[in-house]
Amino acid sequence: MAGQSRKWMILVATIWIQAFTGTNFDFSEYSSSLKSHLNISQLQLNYLATASDMGKVFGWSSGLALMYLPLSLVLFIASSIGFIAYGLQWLAIKNLITLPYYLFFLLCLLSGCSICWFNTVCFVLCIRNFPVNRPLALSLTVSFNGVSAALYTLAANSIDPSSDALYLLLNALVPLLTSLAALVPILLQPPLDSLNRSPEASRRNSVIFLVLNFLAIFTGIYLLLFGSSTSDESTSRLYFGGAILFLISPLCIPGTIYARDWFHHAIHSSFRMEGSGFILVHVDDLELHKELLTRQNSTLSLSNGDGHGLLSENGSKYRSQSAKSSDVCCGKMFGQDQLAMLGEEHTAAVVVQRLDFWLYYVTYFCGGTIGLVYSNNLGQIAQSLGLSSSISTLVTLYSAFSFFGRLLSAVPDYIRNKFYFARTGWLAIGLVPTPVAFILLAVSDSAAALKTGTALIGLSSGFIFAAAVAVTSELFGPNSVSVNHNILITNIPIGSLLFGFLAALIYDENAYKIPGELMADTLVCMGRKCYFWTFVWWGGMSVLGLCSSVLLFLRTKHAYDRFERHRISAQLIVS
């Protein structure tokens, strides 16, 4: 029981780490001050945002470090890198030291790398301590990364609302302090052999995760209502204290659930919870699925020798029909090199040769990455429309709805028994709000349109960010997810550079100096023309991403359907 309690302490510690280490999401809060201090163009500012995203290219280094160093030391190194990177930027923007532009670029690169190290630590903690409920643990903890901007906005408003540079200081200190607090449960994490992997434990854990998700929803609503409050500092401190209480409250949930379970077990020995359907694709189900398909492969190979035994009869018919119509473009698109089953391990060399991976890559590139670039430009977008005073509100709005989107990514796992749908199909549905938002932003320059568009983009990108880990695991194998997912997210720095370059180019073409302003030496663009064509281009790219996601769904739907049929058959055999 002690081991079971400690693993929930690990989960809470992981939530804290994720909640306070998404420091790249508050870039738009201080980007205007950074631009003014360095006296740079919008294009040069975009390169700094890109540098932060480029840090993800070096995410593999965290996995390499974990091969030789203890987890606690890797966490400490991540927090130290962030402390140095953001701390030096704060000293420079406060004119305490002088740094050239290229050093700011390198510091942004380091800060982005530290975020990737934090994420790797969190993924490893969830995978090690929740081997059975891994998808639920990952989706819940990753969700809290979306509230970082709202939490930092509350913290800054409670200290000094007029200082944009304060965000850099908070970005340096808070992750370091959070890491020190999280070290205690990490050092005391239970041994792997003490973790209960029984079906009863899985059902009990699923209930706890359901309660934690409801608590997370209340946290998101609270931050949405009070995260960008413009009240005085004392009131902001009260709101910030309430947010901290919400983050601490998950500590009470596991103890309450276990106490109730003990009470019912002591009084009603026959107490059981039947029919949990909380995992869309269970790890053990994947293994059973692969075993069934392997047996089927042997049988079909002996009977007809066609070499397609990993497919069911329907799948074989589908393949043969596709082969007969190989001269048809549509047939090639849907039939060529399709996944035989879910959970099959793919090496990096094999992954990059699959059409499904590149459809997935384009989906992420034109969906979640565009949302991230939009959040980086949110400060300049608001400023160009004369809404500089609403930047904190917009950042909080994006953060809160990104959080809700990440939580929504877990819904398929909870409704599987009542409504089963391929996760790649949910991914396509999750991308729909992005083109809708950009159409709205291009059509109207009103404050209401900006807030609505920001909420939709945050919701969509948050869903994609959280769902992507599970999709990568299911399509290309759970044991290879760390490598394959790092290959996938190489699209983030590429997209940040290309999409950001486009936005900066259009912005600078319409920018001019404003006489008598504090930023007179800096080119500033005002009006709808600053981002109109950017929204049009981004909207077109998001439509391309939506089309790619639909193709991915159509190509993988048969594998998900076959997996579900095998799962149901296995349950009937057991019962």
Automatic annotation (TrEMBL):
* Membrane topology label: Multi-pass membrane protein
Pfam families reported in the protein's UniProt record: NFD4_C (PF23262), Nodulin-like (PF06813)
Transmembrane feature ranges: 64-89, 101-125, 137-159, 165-187, 207-226, 238-259, 357-375, 387-408, 420-443, 455-476, 488-507, 531-554
Protein name as annotated: Protein NUCLEAR FUSION DEFECTIVE 4
Respond yes or no to whether keyword Signal is given for this record: yes
The residues forming the signal peptide are 1-25
Name any GO cellular component annotation.
membrane
Top-level lineage group: Eukaryota
